[in-house]
Amino acid sequence: xxxxxxxxxxxxxxxxxxxxxxxxxxxxxxxxxxxxxxxxxxxxxxxxxxxxxxxxxxxxxxxxxxxxxxxxxxxxxxxxxxxxxxxxxxxxxxxxxxxxxxxxxxxxxxxxxxxxxxxxxxxxxxxxxxxxxxxxxxxxxxxxxxxxxxxxxxxxxxxxxxxxxxxxxxxxxxxxxxxxxxxxxxxxxxxxxxxxxxxxxxxxxxxxxxxxxxxxxxxxxxxxxxxxxxxxxxxxxxxxxxxxxxxxxxx
Amino acid sequence: xxxxxxxxxxxxxxxxxxxxxxxxxxxxxxxxxxxxxxxxxxxxxxxxxxxxxxxxxxxxxxxxxxxxxxxxxxxxxxxxxxxxxxxxxxxxxxxxxxxxxxxxxxxxxxxxxxxxxxxxxxxxxxxxxxxxxxxxxxxxxxxxxxxxxxxxxxxxxxxxxxxxxxxxxxxxxxxxxxxxxxxxxxxxxxxxxxxxxxxxxxxxxxxxxxxxxxxxxxxxxxxxxxxxxxxxxxxxxxxxxxxxxxxxxxxxxxxxxxxxxxxxxxxxx
Lengths: 251, 269
Prior knowledge:
Number of strands of chain A: 14
Helix content of chain B: 25-40%
Radius of gyration of chain A: 17 Å
Strand content of chain A: 15-25%
Helix content of chain A: 25-40%
Distance between the termini of chain B: 27 Å
CATH superfamily of the largest domain in chain B: Glutaconate Coenzyme A-transferase
Largest sheet of chain B: 10 strands, mixed
CATH class of the largest domain in chain B: Alpha Beta
CATH architecture of chain A: 3-Layer(aba) Sandwich
Distance between the termini of chain A: 25 Å
Radius of gyration of chain B: 18 Å
Order of helices and strands of chain A: HEHEEHEHEEEEEHEHEEEHEH
Oligomer: heterodimer
């Protein structure tokens, strides 16, 4: 069966949610993967949206994080101050699922400005939203980012959300309670932080992708695991469910 | 004391040039009609506060109503950028826009402090981010009990909060349900408030999960059916996703935006 790089990425991200209880879901790629996971690999996964929907079970992918279907299908709907203060802040949520416009080798994220300076940016991005506290407080963070030299940069232009800061010990020093990025899933492969250096290290290639393509799409000298794995191809079932989900949502 | 007014009358009475106003709504129940009435009345130099500025703030910024934006996430949800917001920040059109930038957790707590009558709120947040270097309304406080250093953000007390709700009763008690965001905190934090509603009913029926803003904390109510379109009002109408997608092309270009504004907002009564 043929599949696109985008589909492998989404399926790989959905598989990463197996065995988790709860996931704080950002909009876009994370939402697609989290909803696919709930349909396939992790039927009991509790999807938490920052709009206040806890345990949302949408039949279609929401266009926004506050779509009506999220509230209608949720176990509970709480106010926005409550979702951040009572649910996210104490570290109750297993996985924070985020994306970004830029990411560096320590998994720090930028969704604020690109180019120029902060007051006079070349490109003004939407901003932080819930990401800084999701990245800080969830027990673990999974990042899903399309990989290119534009997104995988030596230095992010603005640290919107902290991964491992400048390296080992920074999260503890900053008082960030969660473990930080555990996985970065791209359209080319999977990166994981080195247990000692915290540097993101390529541990898996997606099927059909060669290493040279990944290093070419990375804006720093990419660390590569000695034994590089390969992501198992998406199954027919995974692809069928994903395509159905996307198709239904575009109507 | 919850006076029933027309929308134009309510905006004229409550929203003044130079005010800090918060049109709140988290995707759901966004007070779009009220925002467009503010454009029609030509308000200027407003400080616009909102957790998630979306297309109605894009329209207000493009129309030249705003001097400053206090926010956490400014985008077209699920679609992309707000092009009028970007044009104002990147090129100063139609006027430069000052930014006071926070996170969602920070903004939510700023409103909660405002509603609580406290000078500031405390949270675990922002640590290690570059927001700390650029946002002056961001500091730290040391817990007197544990010594932990925590983020501190000042209370946000808008001059006016504007929200949309499903219903009010004749007395002026306001009821909203579904995703209720930070609207209760915004109204309680504000000096004045205007609530647009889908309808006024004789008596509010009890609804699980609904919040009620009692009549004596709301300044004015304007019956404005469809006032949250193209966002949605749970129980009344769905979100018009096509409008959000179409907004991307309309707003990308100054001329197409200005033409749209003339046809759909300024020229409409």
